[in-house]
Amino acid sequence: MLVAVVLRLVPDLSGEFEIADDGKDVDREWVGMRLNEFDDHALEEAILLKEAEGATVIALALAGEGADRMLQSAIARGANRAVKISHDAEGVLSSRAAAPVIAAAVRQLGVELVLTGVQTPEDLFGQLAPYLGATLDWPHVSAVGGVQRAGDGIEVLQEYSGGISARLRLGLPAVIGVQTASQPPRYVSGSKLRQAMSEPIAVIKSDAMPAADTAEILALREPTRSSEAVMLEGDAETVADKLHGLLAERGLVKG
Amino acid sequence: MAVQTLILWALVAFAGAVAAWRFYRLLRPLLRARPDPRFDRPGERIIGVLRAVGLHQRLLKIRYSGILHAMIFSSFIVLFTAIVEAFGSGLFPGFSLAPIGGNTWIAWLQEVFAVVILVGLGLAVWQRYVIRPSRFRGSNTLDATLIYLLITAVVLTMLLQAAFAIAAGHDAAAPWRPVSRQIAVLLTALGVSGESAARGEHIFYWAHICAILGFLVYIPGSKHRHMILAAINVYFRSLQPKGTLPPADLDHPPIGVGAIEQFTWKNMLDLYSCTECGRCQAACPAYAAGLPLSPKLLITDLRDHLIDKTNGAAPEPLLGGAIAEETLWACTTCRACMEVCPVHIEHIPKIVDMRRQLVEQARVQPMLQEALSNLQRNGNSMGKSPRLRARWTKELPFKIKDARSEPVNILWFVGDFASFDPRVQANTRRVAELLHAAGVDFGILYEAEQNSGNDVRRAGEEGLFEMLAKHNIELLSGCTFNRVMTTDPHSLNALRQEYRAIGGTFEVIHYTQLLLELIESGRLTLAPGQGEVATYHDPCYLGRYNGGFDAPRRIIERTGHRLHEMKRCRENSFCCGAGGGRIWSDDTGVTERPSENRIKEALALGDAKYFIVACPKDKVMYTAAVQALGVEDRIEVRDIVDLIKLAPHAIGERQPNVAA
Amino acid sequence: MGDILVHIETRAGAIQPVSLELLTAARELAGATGMKVEALVAAAAPQEITARLGAADRVLVVAHPALEPYTPEAHAAILAETVRARDPAIVLLGYSSVGLDLAPNLAVRTGRPLVSYCVKLAVTGDAIEAESLVYGGKLRATTRAKLPAIFAVTPGSFAEAQAGAAPAEILELAPPDAIGKLRTAFVSETRPPPGAIDLTQADRILCVGRGIADKDSIAIAEEVAAALGAEIAGSRPVIDAGWLPKERQVGKSGCKVKPKLYIAAGVSGAPEHLEGMSAAELIVGINSDAKAPIFRVAHYGTTCDLFDLLPALGERLKSGGAG
User: Which CATH class is domain C4-180?
Assistant: First the structure.
């Protein structure tokens, strides 16, 4: 089974970041980028399929800054090969815009199953998995918590709210939006990363043009707090006192 | 007579063969093991053996044990003459030590040391069964008991043989054998003489022989192997600087050790040399904290696993089977174990080697995985953006030079915790202020600095260590400076010792050394002190690993404090528990944090008002410990910099910029 | 002009709360534009569900056995066909696991713009201005989409519409042919076991997030929870890592809870989590990041280290006063 995992770099907003001058995007010059967390899970699930079923895993990413390192890390994790998609589009592509570009590459590679993260933090205009599915006219399932081979196709676990989940069977080819891998993404040692640095990254050209988003971002800003939380200051002992007092006042605890 | 000789030959040959076979079985895996270059500098090695074995240097650190061992040890040497006499005369009729004094001074020495050894054994038995020191917990008592019995048998049979000989009138050495003579008197009083005495002599001669041969056959399977192996093991000890670990060949897997046969021959020799004395266990902070690591049991478990595997009887794997993963992760790499081991066993390289394989197999706890992933991504374990590294400088009233672009005298390698941890940043700023006040020409690397990799290496992540080290070395190589200074002993160790093998040789000093230089040269004028009592905690990587004991102490005195030392000071300092990657692990299983144990030790001094530290991790660990124990009113944790109060005229005034 | 089409999500014959929220949003938009509200129910036996949809002007029903239990493919086909047939100006979907698949699929098949994670919708001329929470809730995006367009709404953004009287009109639509050529099949469903903890019944909840760092540290939180008489819960990363069972998950793919007390320790407060707990009466957030989104819904917060605060709090709870 030939599996492609689409990997994306997204801004790491856990640290400091600034809004760009035009007020419509994060200032990408200074912000750190990291592998999208759900894509990390998708990669782990793909490697698990490789280990369980002997699937061949291709790590796939759009060309751009940091793509090489990200793809090499995927090889260090266990992907069989890495492929970078070169294209003519400029700037940051939303998942919707990127879908046709990636879909063309997927067709070129003859992939049967595409795994990617269920969403990225910047999927304002929608998620990649269903976009790819619809573009390729392949069945797709999102919010998936596990993928297994089942006969000629696959079985996935789609998760809903309230702890309910359902097993669905799909014929291949298909696209899956992975939410949780069957086991937490494993650690990759520095020595494996080092070895992977010398792995070649194939490049394929995608002829497809990106799709238009057709909605327009007017502004991106930090939300103003309508009702702010009252912050409790002090060291642990002081705050614990205040908190305990709060709870006691409301009759939630004795004291 | 000839029959007796033949029988003795047969016995000796048989016992010798069995003993040799058993030794061979032990040593076979060594012959097939990975190489270990320990054959250099023979002169230095021999001297070490003489110090360790001849002077009993480490043994005497526990006076009682050291003395009793010296007694037994020296007696063995002297009584060896008795063995030579017994076997010599039996195997080669006519052989005797008489010509060189076998019936005079040698006999006398044998008598004296027979008593010495029996007293020594008595002390040993008393210690093992009455005093019962906790370091013996887990040691093989049966083995010890059998040894006592065998040695006693050897000595008593020797004395009794001589006594019967004297009673029979045979022994020419009688005048030189006071003890045996007394026993002979007793025997004669009991009516033993003449023929019965001769028979007794004969019996005890053979008993003596059998006891010795029995001992010989027993040794290979007993911790008493150390009789033969100790000197050898000390000879082959590592002469590499303490702060370096053997490298891993990242291009040739397996990386680290995943199966016992992957250890080098010297590591295996270590396992056989262990005497189960337990000094390492007694010194280990992880063990004291209740974690599942005893350095002693680690070595004996590895030894037993090696023996089992050689015999084909070990179905369990090494990692996670013979040795639990939690055991391996519990070590702080403080080196207390290696510092006290009388036979110079190297515990830490074994632990690190096994950790290396666990890392390769991704068998790491989530917290450690997160720290290592952060280091891979951002060069610091907190996962903060590298841009935030120099944030602590923002509140300073002056700008620190950027060592990347300007030449400096002192290149200050700040370290992760000192840069990012809000609890330590105030300290770091204070150091900057002092250096500035003293007019030191210094600079930092701003956001280009990355974790030195010291603890990354000790956590077993060789590949990541190499990445960090190479980055820092390249960075430093592009800078112009005289010396590197750091506030963090772990960084100090990596920069001074570990980086050498990767092409980075720098002169590296600890900030306490620099501050002392500044004080002594008058560039920092101190306000007079109040004479308060303080105790000082030697950080593992500054003290034990890098010999930096004195500078902090001199500063403490210079600032007018009275130093009251804790018992576990200098080389015997007790680790705070954060090293070796432990700061990236959680506290499960800890019954008493090493840091709290240490604070209690300081409190027990009675009068120490301040607990002085010289390492950013120590400041964090001990402040937390004081809070946890609720003793803030009795003792205060202070960094060396907190002690330095400048004389009024020195504050705000920069002193002339003199090249350091 | 077209109408407003609301996608009604059902499960085992029950309407999902988010769909009722969409009806409220639709009514607001209808009031501003004069458009009609149509609700689409695609199920095996949709007629039983329509009675609750009085807030809609018209209910479109598509009945087919393949529509239940749910598969994305079947419902995507119905939705696309319905939009082609009815040509609504605005389509509203709830952002659940169902919406995640259906909204983008619909956008491609009908060539319409899609804006996700909407918390607010306003009409401006021939477009809709939407506000969405992105980057884990840290940033708010304002977008403008020219109609016709599709909007996926974050649950919890609107009040649920009342059932009301039966809807004015019910229109039956035929399912497209594609319904017979599906490549996706339902196999089985898993519900939490009956004896399992039901967080929705808990009075007090102490929820741990990624900040708890590892499984063994959860014990610290469990102690405090026990002293507090609270149930322990986890946000998605904690459940994913296997540190707590699935029944204890609060959030989009877990439980939606409304306890008297909700303490979130080490939880960042991404919208998916807030969805599950923002209605709690008293919310206390513990997170070392002062900018964590949790503080936007919390009533009280602190940046104290949870490893210091929780034990300190636990002490006070056990001793009933100052520790």
Answer: alpha beta
Extents of the domains making up chain A: 2-205, 227-255
Q: How many Å apart are CA B254 and CA A174, to the nearest integer?
A: 38
Looking at residue B444, the DSSP 8-state letter turns out to be E
3-state secondary structure of A195: helix
Q: How far apart are CA B359 and CA B248, in angstroms?
A: 13
Query: C161, C55 in Cβ contact below 8 A?
Result: yes
Can you list the positions of beta strands (E) in chain C? 4-8, 10-11, 14-15, 37-43, 58-63, 90-94, 114-124, 127-134, 139-146, 149-153, 169-173, 184-190, 204-208, 231-234, 261-265, 282-286, 300-302
Does this chain's domain B384-517 share its CATH topology with B526-648? yes
Sheet holding A202-205, edge to edge: A202-205, A81-86, A56-62, A2-6, A113-117, A174-178, A140-150, A153-159, A165-170, C184-190
Nearest-by-Cβ selection for B385 from A16, A194, A195: A16
The answer, for C213 touching chain B at a CB cutoff of 8 Å, is yes
Q: What residue in A sits closest to B249 (Cα-Cα)?
A: A191
Q: What is the pLDDT of residue B628?
A: 81
Q: CATH number of the domain at B260-360, please?
A: 1.10.1060.10
At B362-376, the pLDDT tens digits run 999 888 998 999 999
| Domain boundaries, given as residue ranges, for chain C | 4-180, 199-319
Mean pLDDT of A196-210: 88
Which positions in chain B touch C215 (Cβ < 8 Å)? 366
Considering the domain C199-319 in this protein, what is its CATH number?
Answer: 3.40.50.1220
Neighbouring C-beta atoms of residue B253, cutoff 10 Å: 14
- Secondary structure (DSSP) of B272-339: HH-----HHHHH-HHHHTT-S--HHHHHHHHHHHHHHHHTT---S-TBTTTB-HHHHHT-----HHHH
A186 touches chain B (CB under 8 A): yes
Write out chain A residues lying below 8 Å of C236, CB-based.
Answer: 180
Q: State the pLDDT confidence band at B526, using cuts at 50, 70 and 90.
A: confident
Quick one: pLDDT band at residue B488, thresholds 50, 70, 90?
A: very high
C28/C134 Cα distance (integer angstroms):
24
CATH code for residues A2-205:
3.40.50.620
A3-12, B650-659, C235-244, range with greatest mean pLDDT: A3-12
pLDDT tens, residue by residue, B429-461: 999 999 999 999 999 999 999 999 999 999 999
ipTM: 0.90
First to last CA, chain B: 85
* Domain range list for chain B: 2-235, 260-360, 384-517, 526-648
Residues B536 and B509: beta-carbon distance below 8 Å: no
Q: Give the tokens for residue B11.
A: 């016995």
Residue B586: per-residue pLDDT = 75
B393-415 tens-digit pLDDT: 999 999 999 999 999 999 999 99
Distance to chain B for C171, nearest Cα, Å: 55
> Is residue A227 pLDDT above 80, yes or no?
no
Q: How high is the pLDDT of residue B191?
A: 84
> Number of helices and strands (H, E) in chain A?
6, 13
Can you name the CATH fold of B526-648?
Rossmann fold (3.40.50)
Q: What is the interface size between A and B, counted as CB pairs within 8 Å?
A: 54
State if pTM tops 0.95.
no
Give me the residue from A142, A222, A232 closest to C100, CB to CB: A142
CA pair distance A151, A169, nearest whole angstrom = 10
Angle between helices B616-629 and B422-437 (to 10 degrees): 130
Q: Do C136 and A121 touch (CB under 8 A)?
A: yes
Average of per-residue pLDDT values in chain B: 91
Kindly state whether A219 is in contact with chain C, defined as any CB-CB distance less than 8 angstroms: yes
Residue C46 pLDDT more than 60? yes
Topology of the domain covering B384-517: Rossmann fold (3.40.50)
